[in-house]
Every structure is written in C-alpha cells, then in structure tokens.
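Example: Quercetin 2,3-dioxygenase.
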Amino acid sequence: MIGQRRIVLEPREVPLGGVRGMSVLRVLPHRNLPTIGAWCFLDRFGPADTRMRVEPHPHIGLQTVTWPLIGEIRHRDSLGSDADLRRGQLNLMTAGDGISHSEYSIGDEPIPLDALQFWVVLPEGARQGIGGFERHADLPTLTLPAEEGPDATATVVLGEFAEVVSPATVHTPIVGAEIAVPSGARIRLPLRTDWEHAIMLVEGDAQVATHGMTQNDVLYLGDSRDEVEVTSAQGALLFLIGGEPFDDEIVMWWNFAGRTHEEIVEARTDWEAASPRFGVVEGHDVRIPAPPLPDVRLMPRGRRI
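Written out as structure tokens, the predicted fold is:
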C-alpha cells in the first residue's frame, strides 16, 4: 500500500514548437511520480485562440485519451479513422505495438481551444496487440449527493467510478471522471481504498481534503481512502484520475511507452524508416520526424512518492 498522501503536482509549461507551434501545461509524467494508476501523461492545451496542426506522429504501448473543453478537434489515424471531437465526447486511441495519428483544430483560422489529453500505459499483452480507435458521444453520468448545497454531477469518461462504468475499452483497473461541483456545495467523492487517486482543478475554486486548490494543479491523494471531501464557494470543474497502482517500470521517450531502451530505439528506427508498423495517415504530405535519442541509455523513471 502507498498510504494516504496530499501532494501537489504543479504543471510546467512545455513549448511543443515546430509544426505544432503551441505550448501546453504538463503535469504527468512528474519527476517523482511516473504513473497514477496506469495514467502516465497529462497535458492541458489552452484555453487559447490557436490553429492546432499536429501532423502524423507515432505511438506504442499506450492509449491516448482526448477530452475537449472548448472547440473542435479532428482526429485521423493510420487505421483510417477520421472523427471530429467536441465537448462531452471522448476520443480513445489504442496504440498497441504501433499506430500513428494527427490532430487538427477545425477550420483554417485560429479558434478558441481547450482540452485535456492523457496517456494510459498498456500492460503486457495489450501493448503488443493491434491498435484501435473509439469515439464515445454518450458517456454515463451520475449524481453525487451533497452534504451541503446543490448536488454535484460526474461523467465517467474511462473505467469505473461509484459503480458506474464507461463504455470505453480499458486494459487495467482505472478511473477517469469529470466532476462538476456547484457553487456552495460540499460533497464526498467515493474512492476505492486499493486504488491511488489524484484530482485536477480544471476551472473554478475548490478545497479537496481541506487543501485549497490552484487551477491546473493536481492533488495526489495516494491510496487507502474510501472517500474525499470536496467543497467549492463559486463552483468547480474537476477531473479525477486513478486506478490500481501500475507495477511495471516503464521507459517513456517522445511518444513511446516501452519497458527497455532497446524497444524505444527499435520504435524510433521503424518510424524514421516509414515502416508498415505505424501505417500511413491519409491526407497529409508531412509527418513529424523523431528527435535524436539522448547520448545515455534510457532508464525507467522510478516512483519517489
């Protein structure tokens, strides 16, 4: 068991540059915490008026979870998927042993855009499998009764929360849920004691486990909790992530999640060689080249929390 924690994971600004031409706020991976359950990556891009052009790029060993807050995003991948995504809808892409995709904002001009993007690391078996893509426009919701003020509502984006299950495919015990807390509410979020959890404040104000949250911070709660108290004076939008602690050590580099240095080198080599492993995303004349590998051996990033 990890035990109860109350540790703030502050986001850092990461300039993506190149053909992307935008910056994001990144919380995971954190230098002291490579995963929360199987969640291994968390970016927020926006809110901003921007023209998003993420050209085809590869992934291995993970799922991408795209959750838009404002604006529309077009997803295309090497499986032939072509889907527009907007508020309240989920795009879930499973890389397996190799996939490539692109993400564009809708239209040729800058638009208001804000979204959360997560990666979920795949366990053995699933990470060697074939890729897949799912779009879910009708996700389950539930009411969270308030102890004071109006009731809160939750949308179960991925996995299971309060015995409500998302239709999206998962490969590990996991939870990803958006929670809307009204002004003046005090609620208790039910948690599984054998899972670790963390909560991000997306908008508004909130106290979680008596800790005053700052927008875009993630409060890591550890495990061993069956609930956590949340209050909000003016209303809040939260995102809860968590799950069974992921025991495998992973090597993450660029867009790849592997287990060894050699796996990452092989994936990079295959991408640069335009290997059939990653397929082709139709409708693009360019793709993102892999950056140079570091001069040192890639090693797993251990947990220090």
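The CA atoms of residues 193 and 224 lie 4 Å apart.
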